[in-house]
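Q: Could you fold this chain for me?
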Amino acid sequence: MGAGARPSAHPSRLDRVGVQLYTVRSLMAEDVERTLEAVAAIGYREVEFAGYFERTPAGLRATLDGLGLEAPATHYGLNVFRDRLDEAIEVSATLGHRYLVLPSLPTAERSTLDDYLRLFDEMNRIGEACGRAGLGFAYHNHAFEFEPTGGAVPFDLLLERTDPDLVHVEIDLFWTVEGGGDPLAYFEAHPGRFRLCHVKDRTPDGTMVDVGKGVIDFRAIFDRSAQAGFEHYFVEHDQPADPLASISASFDHIAAMSDG
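A: Sure. Below is the predicted structure, expressed as structure tokens.
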């Protein structure tokens, strides 16, 4: 694996561009250190973890520090928040995470409106526990949260029924648009709730593509960053044909768009 050196300047519109490491998970499974080195060489300065690939927190922190990378967020499954939150908090202290993100909800636990309401109550409790440890808690959406259930839209209920001081949102721009949601309308209705975002693009027919190769208006979205509450932006592509080429193309588009 290799990647040519690139300028370290960041897009002026985004202070620091990050990448969700799920995008390069196949490479991480082969060689964590070389993959992170390639990510840094492209120009990324923040990463979001989705698994640690059997590396120790201390070892990963040393690698990140050596490459000038920070890891402000990580994804943990609901089972971790339920059963191993103390362990997750300890790992986060070592790696410098500031947000623990729930990436989805188990299909079997979200069949009815009452199911969703129970989960949102649980999120408040998780957020409170994370807050006591000095960490933020956030939920990452897909498209299913926009499917009406029991006469309500679960994503709307999430924003209404969870405490904004305890439960933040990592809005996935692809899945929000895929589900029929309007990110700008949500920013206006719920300012400050969206501390993190996944920057990923789609074609008119819903195909996921590298940032800049689709139709999502990222310039309009980034112009509303303050209203949304964005602190961290993570490029992502769920199934890239060439992971490094994908995150490189996305980074270059964001840089060119911001400089323009």
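A (continued): The chain has twelve helices and ten strands.
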